[in-house]
Amino acid sequence: MASEPVNANEFRELAGHVLPKMYYDFYTGGAEDQHTLKQNVDAFRRIIIDKSATVLGYKISAPIMIAPTARHQLAHPEVSILPTGAQAIKWYLSEQVYKRRDISAQIVQRAEKSGYKAIVLTVDAPRLGRREADIENRMVAPQLNNFEGILSTDVNSDIERLKSITNLPILFKGVLTHEVGVLLSTISARKAVEVGVAGIVVSNHGGRQLDYTPTTISVLEEVVDAVGGKVHVLLDGGVRRGTDVFKALALDAQAVLANVVARCSKRRTLDYRNAERCV
Q1: Does the pLDDT value for residue 84 go beyond 60?
Q2: Domain ranges of the chain
Q3: Nearest to 98 by CA among 56, 157, 52, 47
Q4: Strand 263-264 and strand 269-271: pairing?
Q5: Superfamily grouping for domain 53-278
Q6: Are 174 and 218 in contact (CB under 8 A)?
Q7: What is the pLDDT of residue 195?
Q8: Taking Cα atoms as reference points, which of 178, 184, 193 lies closest to residue 225?
Q9: Which of 30, 165, 221, 270 is the most buried (most CB within 10 A)?
C-alpha cells in the first residue's frame, strides 16, 4: 500500500491495522460462508466493458475517431497523414463541394480509389473563420491545391451533386440544430434525414470558423431526438478525456471525433497508433 490510502481497498487494509480484530471483523464480515459478500465484489470484476462501436457498418475498437484536419504542411512541407495499426480504418474524407463539378468528381474518384468508405460534407462553413491571432501573426499558409475561391456555397445543390457522382455514404458535418434556419447551421438534423444522408457530425469546427455558436455537447440531445435513430450521429469539439467520450455516448452519440497530439516520426508521417490511449 502507498504511504496514503488512495482507494476503498486500501482504506480497508489500513483499518485492519488500527482497529481491534473484533471491531474490524464486525465491519467487514458477512453471514456464514460470506459467499454473497465475496460474490458482490467478484461479480463486478467478471463484467468486461466492450468499448467497440459500429459506424456505417464498420466495427472500430473504441468509439473514438480522429477528426479531419487541414494544412498539415504547416508542420512540415512533406508531411502526410496515414492511419496505422490494425484498428486504423480509412473510412472518411472531409471536403466541401467546389463550384466546378469536375474538381468535385476528381476528388471523390480519388477518395474511392484510395479506399475511403464515406464522404463527409461540411454544410455550414463555406468560408474560413476570422481568427484574430492569424491576422496579428500575418499568417501565411499554403494554398489548398489552387482550390481557394472556388468553394460552393449552395449546400442544397451540393448534396444532389455528390449523390450523383458517388455511391459512398454521405455524412453532414456542421449540424447544430433540429430546425431549419436556426443558429449557424444551414442544414437541420431533420433536413439531413430527408435528403437521405447516412449520418451527421454535430460540430462547430472547434470554434474556429464562427464564434459564439452553441457547444456541440449542449445540442447533441436535440439532434439525436430529431433524427429518431434513422442516421448515425457523431460529435466533435471539446473532447479531451475519456469521460468526455462517455458523456457523449450517454447522450446517444455513436462515436466522437477528437483532435489528438500526434507524434511526427522520422519518416515525417503523423503516427496515430496511440491516439486511443491519449483520450
Answers
A1: no
A2: 8-46, 53-278
A3: 157
A4: antiparallel
A5: Aldolase class I (3.20.20.70)
A6: no
A7: 84
A8: 178
A9: 270
